[in-house]
Design a protein that fits this description.
The radius of gyration is 37 Å and the shape is elongated. The relative contact order is 0.07. The longest helix is centred in the middle third of the chain and has 50 residues. It is α+β, with helices and mostly antiparallel strands. Helix content is about 55%, strand content about 15%. Strand 6 and strand 7 form a beta hairpin. The strands form 2 sheets. Strands 2-4-5-7-6 form a 5-stranded mixed beta sheet, covered by helices on one side. It has a two-stranded antiparallel ribbon with strand order 1-3. It starts with 8 loop residues before the first helix and ends with a strand. Helix 4 packs parallel to helix 7 and helix 5 runs parallel beside helix 6.
Length: about 350
């Protein structure tokens, strides 16, 4: 809502400096009057007729004191205006940077020089906020572009199949329906993954006590047919690891990790190991698989949306949208946890999730 314009901070500081000097001068004059002039005799003739008396001192002192007070007031106004301007100069730079950021320019930085003080701390905090905002906006723009590209692909395929069905009435309709069903299923799965990723980023959770070991066993049981189809041994080890959070999101996190480990397990007769444990005040989940060696520079990018990892083994029936680990990272952030990815010593990937533990 609009507000009436008030005095500027510089003018307020100037008036404060001038007022302080005026009050200090008045107190000084009061001290002189109270402790000096009252001891001067109040007779018209001093000793031998030449000593100053109170009347003469007052007539001499009061005009000089008035001039001194006026000088202090003017000196306080001018000096206070200059000092306030110099003191508020860093705040002006911060305000200009905030105005630029409000107009959409997030690349500007204050980079205030000098020793550490309150303004320097505010400047550094503002620069850090701008850096995070710029990174977040760039990530969101990249995510939106990738999401639109991913969603456009199944829609384009559906349109092409419908065009074929319309132009070639003799074509087998059963085959077209089956292919349309597969394409639409992929589009629905992608949309649900995007919604889940958005939900995890919002961080709005209904928390309850969850045991990661039970979630790991459920995920392994669900994905056991896929592992057997690929001749992969799926092991669940460890003990109870309780945490507080959304059971639905945590179940999706564990399932994504186990499915990712199974799908990207290149050699036949490979293994996937899921381990849970409570370590101090943390509950830990580790998922490790065998597979090809991963380039170290590729591993940090695997949690980015739509990062499929071109070096990794994939199959047509599990091409994925590249959102599995991105969803995992989003869910871990929403639960105040940590996510670590490291290439296995003999190949494959080791994923470690740490979440706040509960008794």
């Amino acid at each position: 809502m609009p507000r009436r314009r008030g005095l500027s901070a510089r003018l307020k500081l100037t008036l404060s400096y001038a007022g302080f000097l005026a009050v200090a001068g008045a107190l000084l004059l009061a001290v002189v009057w109270g402790f000096l002039l009252r001891y001067v005799p109040d007779n018209s003739q001093g000793l031998l007729g030449i000593s100053p008396n109170r009347y003469l001192l007052v007539r001499t002192f009061v005009p000089a004191a008035a001039v001194a007070m006026l000088f202090l007031l003017l000196f306080g106004l001018v000096g206070g205006w200059i000092l306030a301007g110099r003191m508020l100069a860093p705040l002006t730079r911060i305000t200009d940077a905030a105005r630029r950021a409000g107009n959409g320019s997030l690349s500007h930085r204050i980079r205030m020089k000098g020793r550490q003080d309150e303004f320097r701390e505010l400047s550094d905090a503002f620069d850090s906020m701008l850096e995070q905002l710029e990174s977040h906006v760039a990530e969101q723009q990249r995510f939106a572009a990738n999401a639109s590209h991913e969603l456009r692909t199944p829609l384009a395929i559906s349109r092409a199949l419908l065009d074929v069905a319309r132009e070639d009435p003799t074509r087998d309709r059963g085959e077209l329906v089956e292919r349309l069903h597969a394409v639409n299923t992929r589009a629905i799965d992608l949309t649900e993954a995007l919604l889940l990723l958005s939900r995890g980023d919002r961080g709005t959770l209904t928390r309850e006590s969850v045991d990661l070991s039970l979630l790991a066993e459920e995920a392994a049981e669900t994905l056991l047919p896929l592992a057997e189809q690929r001749r992969i041994t799926l092991d669940v080890t460890g003990g109870a690891a309780r945490t507080s959070g959304s059971a639905e999101l945590l179940q999706r996190m564990v399932t994504n990790l186990v499915q990712n480990a199974v799908v990207h397990n290149l050699p036949a007769d490979g293994t996937v190991t899921v381990h849970t444990e409570a370590y101090g005040d943390r509950s830990v989940l580790r998922v490790e698989n065998t597979g090809p060696r991963l380039p170290p520079e590729l591993v940090p990018t695997l949690t980015e949306p739509f990062q499929r990892g071109a070096e990794r083994a994939r199959t047509d029936e599990h091409a994925g949208a590249g959102l599995g680990l991105a969803i995992v990272a989003s869910i871990v952030r929403a639960h105040d946890g940590t996510l670590e990815l490291a290439p296995g010593p003999a190949g494959g990937l080791l994923v470690t999730v740490g979440l706040p533990g509960t008794p």
